[in-house]
Amino acid sequence: MAKVELQPIGNPLEVALGADRIAEHRAQMHTLETTLCERRAQVREGWGQSYVDRVHAKGKLTAWERIEALKDPGSRVVSLGTFVNFGRTFDAPPKSAPAAGVITALVRVANRYIMVIANDNTVASGSWWPLTPEKIERAQEIALRLRLPVIYLVDCSGLFLPEQAHTFPGRTGAGHIFKMNALLSDHHVPQLAGVCGDCIAGGGYMPIISDKVFMTEQAYMVIAGAALVKGGKGQKITSLSIGGPDIHVHLSACADERVPDDAALLWRLREEVQKLPSSAADYYRFGAESAPPQFETSEITALLPADHRVVYDSREIIARLCDSSLFCEVLAHTGQEMITGIARIGGLFVGIIANNQLLNPHPHNPLERRPGGILYREGIAKISTFSRTLNDDGIPIVWLQDISGFDIGAEAEKEGLLGYGSNLIYTNSTNSVPMLTVLLRKASGAGYYAMAGLPYDPVVQLSTPVTRLGVMEGRTLAIGAFRTKLDDSFNLISQDPAERAKVEAGMQAVEERITADMDPYKSAAQMDTDEIVPLSELRDTLTVLVEACYQSTGYRRLKNPRIWSVHDLTVLTEPRVTTVGPNRSTQDNHDAYIAAQAEAAKRPGLVAVRAPVMGLFYRRAQPGSAPYIDVGSIVTAASTVGLIEVMKCFNQITCGSVGLTARAEVVEVVVPDGAEVNAGQALAWLRPLPA
Question: What residues have CB less than 8 Å from 493, skipping those under 6 apart?
């Protein structure tokens, strides 16, 4: 039967890891996750309480208050791009731009996931900073890929003009937001806009292509604000008088409805969302429900060592991400440096591709084992084939990266890893199925690319507090940079103390700079990853993302599990081992074998010609003709015993089927002409004759 047989995976934490290591790993990760939570809270505060008070004084809600009021009660908000511009300052005196002044998040509204894009009105009145346009466009891209409705909560005073050179002109500058508006509309993705306050210049253009535009009584949309109009044309006006709801709802028709305040606007947005098609996620659960892993997800903080040089069992991580800790491993017999299989997350099927960190058998040398976290030929071919199969079946792919890179050296070049790697890159470049990439720890070199890193367009890429994203480690790069100063063992050649000190200082500086560049906050600040997630929240975040992948229908292939290609892959590539057990047909075969042995023991010195298949046994070539053999007949290996008819075909049964090499005498013919026989049943007994 074509089905996925999910099997238990993982062990209790005390079995998977010693008690001393549990405490050590948890202490290290607790420090890192505490820092992450503190920094998230810092970003969420925007420019601080005084700016929150200013927003409230105008009778408005902050962007986060709007999101909290909009979402379904008790549901989880998955923020994306929290740390964009983290640690950067702009202009003089220096000003920060927390989260680039805009919140982009997956928010559950009326039981549907919505991409919400909300200007943070506590940061320079929602201005657009460097990377603000790119962050908005990334959220629009995710919505387009998954066909998720978009809600814009617009409260934007336009570009932060002192930094306009970094936000206005480029290919992904502010103007590209409006192209993405148009592409979403062209692909039938619903867009709703709530204009909550200032909407100047680009902020005014952004809501217009939306299907419905709501304005509060104190909101306005203008190409240029009152101050600019006064400066350019000498007219004494207010932005509200030229672009408020009186104008755009009743005269220009650039907006559809006016509402008294933020609370009413958010209520109307929820009402509009309820008119949209419901989520298809329950349909694609095929009767299953979300079930927590057998082991606590928080245990990942103990299982994943903070030190990138320490190995761990990746299957234990998988066991704490999957529903009920059940996993169907596929292609387990080959490329064992990679783990591939099917699981459910939130009740929905996903394919999981993960680096195996442990030592693994060498396919060509039984005495040798190969380190994990590296791509070899067999593993590359395995995940390329598995990725293509998942794409064919429409199963979203979760990539769990902890990779040092491709194998290098003479063997790697002889085996053509460049070609195999290109095959994998082609596969992931042309996949249409949603891919979610998690950089658990190391994301190094071309291995980061090959395993669906951000350049290969995963729908979302997540990092953790211990992610290290870069071509190579700082120490390795420092050795390469100062190679001419080192011997073959990478020791300093010079004996001059001054020169040695200079080279050591230079190598140390390179190592520190590269290590700093690999910091996950640096990657997130420059949008090289979408979000940093605490390990304890990883399953919850994936649950939301996986459900978002299944919410909309009709835009990609999604097979039901009975017709998955992955079944064919399993049957064709994995040997089937028959053992005695509860399976009825297996037990029947075993019983038949035991019976045949007992039957032979009663006839010492004789050999049986047995039926190889079930069918109708015929002793003659046709009715009325002489039988092929009879008692007393002398036969050889080529002699025909009879015919077995199966599905309208006659199969010739010869004495050679029992391994007869010399002559033999027929002692007994057991089965009469035209009788039914079972596989393994004796047709005739022979006595071998002396040569």
Answer: 485, 486, 487
Question: Contact at 8 Å (CB) between 90 and 116?
Answer: no
Angstrom distance (rounded) from CA 527 to CA 529: 5
Res 680: pLDDT: 86
Residue 539 φ then ψ, to 5°? -60, -45
- Give residues with Cβ within 8 angstroms of 91, minimum separation 6: 160, 162, 163
DSSP symbol at 274:
H
At residue 80, the 3 state secondary structure works out as strand
Rounded Cα–Cα distance for residues 503 and 181 (Å):
53
Please state the φ and ψ torsions of residue 300, each to the nearest 5 degrees.
-60, -30
pLDDT at position 131 is: 97
pTM summary value: 0.87
Residues of the chain with pLDDT under 70: 1-2, 224-238, 575-593, 658-659
Residue whose tokens read 């070539």: 621
For residue 553, give both structure tokens.
């229908």
SS3 letters across 215-236: EECCCEEECCCHHHHHHHHCCC
Contact 291, 321 (CB under 8 A): no
Q: What token pair was written down for 18?
A: 């010693």
- All structural domains of the chain, each given as residue ranges with its CATH number in brackets, are 45-278 (3.90.226.10), 284-472+520-568 (3.90.226.10), 474-517 (no CATH), 602-688 (2.40.50.100)
